[in-house]
Amino acid sequence: MSEVRFHGRGGQGVVTTSKILASAFSRTGQYGASFPMFGFERRGAPVTAFGRFSNKPVREKTQIYEPDILVVLDPSQQDSPAVFQGLVKDSIMLINHPGKNPDIFHKNLIKLGYLDANKIALKTIGLAIPNTCIVGAFASLTGLLGFEPIAEGLSDYFSGSKLEKNIICAKRGFDEVNVINF
User: Fold this and answer.
1) Pair 117, 135: CB distance under 8 Å
2) CB 31: neighbour CB atoms within 10 A?
3) Whole-prediction pTM value?
4) Which of 96, 117, 174, 181 is the most exposed place for a label (fewest CB within 10 A)?
5) What is the pLDDT of residues 79-91, one digit of tens each?
6) Is 145 within 8 Å of 24 (Cβ atoms)?
């Protein structure tokens, strides 16, 4: 089972990211569970969401205290101790980061994926909402999903031209994620 913790801010689509991934996993015959944790429910406030993905039914719906995958949609949180809290050995991290070679290191990370998802989203959908770009990058970085289930999962949340633009955004995330192996 993969236990994923998502960090970001209200308005970035943190919760939707975990839901789209759960939907995509279910389309492959696997199981996914997604659940948020809110503090202050307002745009810009820190938001954490959780996802468990497995080839067996996921029954546990609690917070994830020891993630093996971190997804950070807000680059300003990259140095937050809360992001790395409980990170298990041989973990993966994906971050929305505007620069090249982000200065991120943790003793338990074996792989870091990064891309400027805000820039891609702004250019593709007209809004700096990185979630669908991050979903595509997640699939590519982790190898847990192909792109097709991601595209299909997006149809649960978007339709028409919004769906088309978000599929393009996710595909760019899938193709453009940069990877650093530690």
Assistant:
1) no
2) 17
3) 0.95
4) 181
5) 888 999 999 999 9
6) yes
